[in-house]
Amino acid sequence: MDKILVIGAAGQLGSELTRALADQFGGDQVIATDLRATASSLFPYCRFEVLDVMDKDALGTLVKKEKVTQIYHLAAVLSATGEKNPHFAWQLNMDSLLYVLELAKEQALAKIYWPSSIAVFGPGTPKINTPQFCEKNPNTVYGISKLAGEGWCNYYFEKYGVDVRSLRYPGLIGYKSLPGGGTTDYAVDIYHKAIAKQPFTCFLSEDSYLPMMYMPDAIKATLDLMNAPREAIKIRSSYNLAGISFSPKEIFESISKQVPGFEIKYQPDFRQAIADSWPDSIDDSYARANWRWQPSYDLDGMTQDILTHLPTFFPSQT
Ligand code: SER
Fold first, then answer.
1. Is this model's pTM higher than 0.90 or not?
2. In the chain, how many domains are there?
3. Of 139, 170, 201, which marks where a domain is finished?
4. CA of 271 to the centre of ligand 1 (A)
């Protein structure tokens, strides 16, 4: 029977993916871990342990003691925060991945999941329908660490047969938790302001297109990838993955249809240069062909769902 360890479970992706994993495998088979002890309240449906992924020994002991078979390693420093402390971002993002891959090799773990990002692309990358294989010149430490990590994943698969799988997520948008330190975070924050009936100040310009994805699609993609047979996974670095592409102006217009009088102003900051270096949209035909990926949500569908459900999760804002 599979035993699942989620590292960084209290983050934006982890808090929703852990729930989905508990639904699939049973709460008893899932261990959520995070740096913060206070995160335990998020996981009434499964076991919770405090774990600093940089503590290699503690990680190894937990995996062996609990007979873990799969690790979802979600802890990372994202793009905007990474630029403030590049060496720390590199160390955390890289060392932790190598600990997990090495453990997977030593303990013959069944599967590893590790997220990559659109941040692997940079200046020189084709911006529209960015192909799976093309020039990549990441210019953030986050993107550099993700691109190097993709190489390590492929290396551990080729050399040691570690079944590690990965997706290049677009900006993830959900209403159940807040993102932390990314360039795409504005597309979550904007809904909180709309619900609170406050004007929104956007840190990107109105026409900055970025690839994005609604969280239910991201969860589905992750589970589809991880549940696919080993031989279906043809790409062992990381798969391009596309949901929706829009600009701040377009998400504002989508919200305004349902929140009349909502106001926005644009004050681009250092994150504009990061956004400008990333694709506008992504070609994910390998994911569609290899394991039948298909997104469900468009921009208006996402907006409607978030505006309906967000007040229940953050009641203080209404
Ligand atoms: N959402 C991430 C960021 O903005 C990109 O993967 O850093």
1. yes
2. 2
3. 170
4. 11
